[in-house]
Request: fold
Amino acid sequence: MTTQGTLRGNIAGGAAAIAFTACDVVAAAQARVRSQARATARGKGGAKAAPRRLAAVPSSRRRAVVVGGRRAKTIDVHAHCVIPEAYALLGRKVDDHRGPGIGEVGERRILEMDAQGIDMEALSINPAWYRAERDVVTRVIKIQNERLAEFCARYPDRFVAFASVALQFPDLAVQQLVDGVKKLGLRGAAVGASVADEEFSDPKFHPFWAKAEELGVLIFIHPQSTPDLARRFRGNGWLANTIGNPLDTTIALSHLIFEGTLDRFPGLKICSAHGGGYLPSYAPRSDNSLRVAPDMDTGVKLKKKPTEYLRQMYYDTLVFTSEALRHLAAEVGSNRLVIGTDHPIPWQDKSIDHVLKAPGFSDKERRAILGETAARLLGIKL
Ligand SMILES: [Zn+2]
Reply:
């Protein structure tokens, strides 16, 4: 069994050698993987401890997804992990985090992906650092992004990753995004749904959106429970997550639309977890609010109807039923949907069947949802 200890042991050996000053950190990480593999082949550690590049040898247990007679590569944009040593700097423990195996990116995770038919995950780390001081968060992000790059180098055809960024310091976040994408080969950034009580539409974040737009990379929005409502979420039902998360995303997207942020950065590529929260379920209400209450118009002139902005963003498919998926596609367009499993948090272990079995989609649409759209957004070769 691959344990977190084994993983840390495998990774830790090479980690200290990584530095942002290196001209090609990814190549260095790949070289380390190769040299570790050679060392193992020479007899160190035995076969079970080998940092083999599992991805190079397709597992016979991997479910091969076929659509219209052709193998369809499946890509999951909503997959969590945690880096234990970075978490420790924030005073947190991996064991506090929900999701069995969330501290592991290796054989266990790959076996679970294989069973579900997921060829690739785009790894992200939920931002638990938006209130951290600048020096601490600088270290946290550096560790996380370097580790994520190592995972991707170790299993290049199983993982890509979103950079972590310290959005509470927008200038730092811009640099972390640039370094993550250009030096570490990460494919975008993962963010929360607000930043320590401040909305994404606040002008202080404009430089970050501008840089993401310029780089053409995907920004993955993952909510953080609408913390302002913690008192009302108490009681049975895990409401802080059950309804807090979709609500948090709904608020974030609504501000990006109504404050004109999406007009200002029309090329910005945003993908929201959980099917965009509640917004696509009740979208046309947004087209009527200022008609009903014109006194609530602050003077922002939008170029389109609020619902039209939904069709310039992306959403994962974590909406549970065929009817919910049909409705989401009707509101945002099937070409805006990508798989999201929430792995290893067990919200959904039938993500592939969810897409395959929902009526009303053509094979072309299913292939796009299963992987082609995500591949284009994340720079993955099919
Ligand atoms: Zn999630």
